[in-house]
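[job 0412] stage=complex_fold ligand=zinc ion status=START
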Amino acid sequence: MNGNDNDPTYRYKIPDFVVQVAGQGNGIFTMFRNIDDISKNMNHPKEVLLKYFASVTGSNYNPLKDSITGTHKPDELKKIILQYIKYIVMCPSCNIPETIPKVVGNKKNPDLQLTCCACKNESLVKPQNKQITKGIDIIIKYLNGGGEWVINKGWMVLLTQNERAERKKERMAKSKASTETKSEATTPTSEPYQSNPFDDGNTNDNNSSDSSDSDFNIDDI
Ligand SMILES: [Zn+2]
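[job 0412] stage=complex_fold status=DONE, emitting structure tokens
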């Protein structure tokens, strides 16, 4: 990663997988030691992630041990999760991995829709391949079963425009309080709303229409 602000993925990194293989023979299994971290980072429940790993690798998931059966190396797991991120986490419009999934469509044939916290784009997750189809099914089942979707990150962009303006105002008021007694400065509410959640002034770069798959460096997440 070059840390360049023009790269919308620079801020998002998932930790490397820390796993521990235990058991013997047919009873061998792989425990995910830092799945809580990874889950938090992605804002996807660990139950969903572990079920996905189990499904994709043809293993069984054990929620009590945060494990799946068989031996799985961190590199293999990372490859699997990067594809998941690419198709089920990233907003296809602005390439920011801050989306919230929702089940839409009819009950018999539901779709999974992602709503982007940054640009508000709504998109259906396309069943690109067998793995992604499995991911879609797992998330739909999770949500339909009343599963909670906790958002740990991206709270900034979940605020409404007014809330953001209010917070900015508060911050500015605080910082000015020390040097001025009264400020006539333009209120922050008049500033244009930026869909970029990080206020780095590069809003437009993230929305460029040529952010195609080829631009997406999957190793850089
Ligand atoms: Zn977006």
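The CA atoms of residues 98 and 117 lie 6 Å apart.
[job 0412] exit 0
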